[in-house]
Specification:
This protein is mainly beta. It contains six helices and 37 strands. Helix content is 6%, strand content 53%.
Length: 708
């Protein structure tokens, strides 16, 4: 052990990597408890206790408790998250920055910020959501918001636990964790393992996920500490990509004809963090991270327009042939992401004002290796020889990004101001191996921001902020087929926010924010311009304005009743300027140009709301009732009202879903729980982007949690 410590000391003094020992368990803190009340930007948190009271099954269910967040269902288990913030399109969460312990969670945050997996919620101690100017300390996505998952720390003493639950729709879940300190060396360790299974929200779905995490921490004296984290995730699922046509939905709203669609994913993620403290005023932390992800989706349809009898598969002339002569498509993806990110925290006091500063650098690289293999049969796993079979895509895409930021907070008395700036320099390369062509392009951006706060009283803080929003395009949309650079601008906006945060001694807490997101260019799906949807395009100017509110009340009484309300009123989410889009005619073969100026943006519901009411009794019984409401929204830029034949256009009506949970704390170690999701079994449409996808049906669950 002494030899190991000596070696580690030598390595880190030769290569100055570096947050102090007490901060390594929360590697990057967006909203620590002591900062939350005085933060100059919109911040909300969900603790492990909040999630346990609700016994949430999916990340979507959890995030609906946060104002401004729209989390859309897909397969019914929350593994393909579709998260939008403040009216931004939730498709694949591409307009949100997802982090784990402050480090990138998605497999290609610069070149393809899409989410096709989600780690198990049980691994996290809390969830933090940040909006507006504080985002510039992270990047590259600095428009909608940041969702940061904080993993559970290593325990101070030996402890562990096991949790099991089961229910209808094939629900089975087993979670176990164990950890502690090794003798007097103060080496902390934690291992957690989770196995989850579900039959999803539609027929012919079978989802199986295994998630294992390991965390080690080692103090190196009083001023240094290191932490190492590894996570392995494996999913093997029978799950479709396509939604239903209108006729299929009417016949069987939870149907899924594509029984041979399978999705496999293997992900490994690693991070290494070294923290070093110089006195009480300087902290240096450096993180090294690396992820590998292999994603294979074998499917017979990519959307509700791709049905047997179309020209893409001449050997498949009818849905009756779906299980025999119809071929499939293998969308095979391999991703590699590596980066190093040092950050320095400084603080001081001039006697006139107090100040803190944070500055950091990042060098980031990612690669995408993409294959499309078309087979001749429903279960093919190799290229076929049919008219549309064979190797259809063989593409290597690479990103090199260097960035840096500085953010300073100056506080005098009751007033503080936090200016900051971020710089991004991004280089893209695309090698089309089928055509033997290569293309390169680059982007750079300076992202400034400023936030101010004023403590009106000890319990009331007013805050405001403004920052430049920035999001780079995907590699495939910046470099076209053949290597030609595409004139696709980076996404840019000016984001403004003003709000107040109030907390009374009687247990009442209130946060209200008014926001304005003014886009000079919002990058949207090409379907919004009448295209195929395979690429993105410059959507032009858009405007988002609204109000968010989070209110909480808890009484210090024998029953300890509590109420939590999270609401969003998105007054505006519209296209600006002289804007047109292609609209299909009745026969869906010809198109006409129609104006869309002033139309509402797709998937921008005007009203979102979640109401939670509960009580915790002294005898250990806790009950909770929750209602979640999503207002009506449009699925396309034309604001089509009637549901289209293919099920990809139309107005989705508003709906409310009720959940109920009961927890019984039999002892300090044992808790029994049960609950029901969508108690009224409300049938509603969740998504039309690839055809009609219904929301999750009624699901009950029961289980226990034992801690030792």
């Amino acid at each position: 052990m002494e030899f190991t410590k000596t070696l580690i000391y030598m390595v880190f003094f030769m290569f100055p990597l570096a947050v102090s020992a007490e901060e390594l368990t929360e590697i990057t803190i967006l909203a620590s408890r002591d900062r939350l009340a005085k933060a100059p930007v919109g911040l909300q948190t969900l603790s492990a206790a909040d999630l346990a009271r609700s016994r949430v099954l999916t990340i979507n269910e959890a995030l609906r408790k946060i104002p401004g967040v729209f989390a859309r269902d897909e397969e019914g288990f929350g593994l393909r998250p579709n998260i939008g913030i403040r009216g931004l399109n939730p498709a694949r969460s591409s307009k949100v920055l997802l982090l784990e312990d402050g480090l990138p969670l998605t497999f290609a945050p610069y070149g393809d910020n899409s989410s096709y997996f989600h780690p198990a919620l049980e691994r996290f101690e809390r969830i933090e959501v940040m909006k507006n100017s504080g985002q510039i300390a992270f990047g590259p996505q600095t428009i909608g918001g940041i969702i940061n998952y904080i993993s559970a720390p290593t325990p101070a003493e030996f402890r562990g636990g096991v949790s099991m639950r089961a229910g209808n729709l094939g629900l089975r879940e087993l979670e176990a964790d164990i950890g502690g300190r090794i003798d007097a060396s103060e080496t902390g360790w934690r291992v957690d393992a989770i196995h989850k299974h579900s039959a999803g929200s539609r027929e012919n779905i079978d989802i199986d996920v295994r998630d294992v995490g390991i965390r080690l921490e080692q103090p190196l004296g009083e001023t240094q500490s290191i932490a190492w984290r590894a996570n392995l995730l494996r999913e093997r699922s029978q799950v479709p990509y396509s939604g239903l046509t209108a006729a299929e939905f009417r016949e069987n709203p939870r149907g899924n004809p594509f029984v041979n669609d399978f999705f496999d994913i293997d992900r490994s993620g690693y991070s290494f963090i070294h923290g070093l403290r110089f006195g009480d005023s300087v902290k240096l932390r450096t993180a090294i991270y690396h992820t590998r992800l292999q994603r294979n989706w074998w499917r017979q349809s990519s959307n509700s327009l791709q049905r047997p009898n179309d020209a893409s598969d001449p050997d498949c002339t009818d849905m009756k042939n779906l299980l025999t002569t119809c071929g499939n498509e293998g969308r095979l993806r391999a991703y590699r992401t590596t980066g190093v990110e040092p950050r320095v925290d400084l603080k001081g006091d001039t006697g006139v004002f107090e100040w803190t500063a944070q500055l950091g650098l990042r060098h980031h690289r990612e690669s995408q290796y993409r294959l499309q293999v078309n087979g001749d049969t429903p279960n093919a796993r190799s290229p076929g020889i049919g008219p549309n079979a064979g190797l259809r895509e063989d593409d290597l895409r690479e990103v090199r990004a260097n960035s840096g930021f500085v953010e300073v907070t100056v506080r005098r008395g009751l007033f503080s101001v936090t200016p900051g700036v971020r710089y991004e320099d991004i280089g893209y390369a695309r090698f089309d191996r089928l055509r033997g062509t290569r293309g390169e392009t680059s982007f750079s951006a300076t992202v400034p921001g400023v936030a101010v706060s004023f403590d009106v009283t000890e319990n009331l803080t007013i805050f405001a902020g403004m920052h430049r929003g920035f999001a780079p395009p995907r590699v495939e949309d910046a470099i076209g087929i053949g290597g030609a650079s595409v004139d696709l601008d980076a996404e840019s906006s000016w984001n403004r926010e003003v709000g107040l945060r109030w907390q009374s001694p009687e247990g009442l807490r209130l946060e209200v924010s008014a926001f304005d997101m003014d886009f000079e260019n919002q990058v949207v799906s090409a379907t919004l311009a009448g295209g195929s949807g395979a690429t993105l395009t410059n959507g032009g100017a858009t405007r988002h304005r609204g109000i968010e509110m989070l209110g909480e009340w808890r009484a210090d009484a024998p029953l300890s009743p509590y109420v939590r309300v999270a609401t969003t009123w998105l007054r505006d989410a519209r296209f600006k300027g002289e804007r047109f889009a292609f609209a299909p005619m009745v026969d869906s073969t010809t198109v006409t140009l129609q104006p869309i100026t002033g139309n509402r943006l797709p998937y921008a519901a005007e009203v979102l709301g979640t109401l939670t009411i509960g009580a915790d009794s002294a005898n250990g019984l806790a009950v909770q009732l929750e209602a979640h409401y999503v207002g009506a929204l449009y699925a396309d830029e034309l604001n089509t009202v009637a549901l289209s034949v293919e099920g990809q256009r139309g107005r989705i009506g508003g709906h409310a879903v009720w959940n109920a949970t009961v927890n019984f704390h039999a002892s300090d170690a044992l808790t029994w729980f049960g609950g029901i999701k969508n108690a009224a079994d409300r049938l509603y449409i969740a998504d039309l982007s690839r055809g009609i996808v219904p929301g999750a049906p009624r699901q009950w669950q029961a289980g226990f949690e034992y801690r030792f």
